[in-house]
Amino acid sequence: MSPESPPRWMQWRHYELQLATVGAVALAAGVQAWSPAILTEPIRWGFQILKSWGLFDTPALVTLFGAFALLTLTFTRSIRIPKENPTKATPQQLRPLRWQLVALAIIAISLITWLALNWLLGVASNATDTASARIEAIRTALTIGAGTGGAIALMLTARRQWLAEHAQMHTESDSAQQRANELYAQSIEQLGHEKAPVRLGALYALEQLAQHNVKQRQTVVNVVCAYLRIPVTSTLASYLLSKSTKEDEINNASKCETDIVGENKEATEHSPGEQELHVRVAAQQILTRHLSTEGNSENPANDYWPDIDIDLRGAVLLDFYLPHGARIRNAQFSRAEFHGYTSFSHATFSNLAIFSWVKFRPEIVSFDGASFPGGADFEDAEFIGDASFEKAHFGNTLQNPAESSFSGTVFEKEANFNRATFSHGPNFSNVEFKGDADFSNATLNQSKYILKGDAAQFTNTLFLSDVKFTQWSGHKPRIPINLSGSQVFVNSTTQSRRIWPAGWIEESRIEQKDLDGGSGVWHRLIPE
Predict the structure, then answer these.
(1) Where are the alpha helices (DSSP H) in 263-386?
(2) Where is the signal peptide (predicted)?
């Protein structure tokens, strides 16, 4: 019980309060009508007004009603089962019947019988045949007592029925939990099977388990992530490095899952490395298809699993792409290696997304429109192909900034940060831009309130191709830039276009060097 909540004896429901109020008033009214000297003068005056309205012509019946209402309330609270969670039993919710209640029931029956008897005998004293009337009064009073006892017995029967139903719900819940545990244990064991179809079936069994058991979802996700973190065999590693992935092969990989499940002859002809590749693709799809809040034909909205953490540190991933609108609470991809089609477009990473030391091998990796409210860590990552962060959002607000770092990252080809938004000055120190770098229209939270000294850090950064920080030369960028110690390589064999932010120029050449792309001269960037 929380400190703010009242004691349990004060936790009444609306209908209980109404029943208690009516019972107390009726009992008091009956006592007042039966014995006016009991209550004080002001209260008796109020009851005299009610009596003048004809409400207390039969005081004994009013008294009986009040006693019966309070007795019903007592038993109702003793058998009450909370509506919020009927399957969760606690000692406070299902306490045994106390002996005080039994004693109270006996006293109540005796009191009601006595009151009825006294009232009926008073009525019988005015009858013509007093003896017969008194006998009939005694018989009626005993009948009232028996009826009261029957009502109490009926409530006890109802209590026994409720407890039986409650126990049945517990039994069914325990059975379902036991079946889920058995399925989980069996699937975990099958994940280590040497045959690919068995491992694939285990993955789909775990997916169905998580779909119908909300509390098991993160556990299942952790198991699938752990499977993907298992080091790949040398055969699979060679296959990935030699494989030239195309977009039409992604569909083929998905189709092959059906072949493996059915154990067709065509599937058995695949090499062990290729079969393991299909199992891994299926595991990736299980992770990704439940992350999107936007339903479609392939990923219905009711299949969304909220608040999921993904830990794929060191995993080797092929054709890893998140559906549109995917949401991940905690994302850990450090030292992972991506092959094939890779896309995180329009995904949302609620907390810090870690991609440090990641190697992106695809021809293009897309983070277009992705959102990083908790910041992003791409330190020492390597992009073999193009990297696109167009319209990506890093951080949340200036009042709650989140840092994003690309320190030490290598961009082998184009790096596109056009119209990207940062809530805090990003860190691009010691980065190598071997391809074109586009930071035009990048903004700092789209706000006129910029923290003092909160600039994008490009210290000791190398630029080896076209660079664009603004649309036109001499224009002031939308985000403050610090290029201290940075250098640019000017290729003498090709013409390049370099648009630096206002206030920075290229110093005279400092070194002549031959690179893979041809010979040229290094220039240092200095403040104007």
Answers:
(1) 265-268, 272-288
(2) none
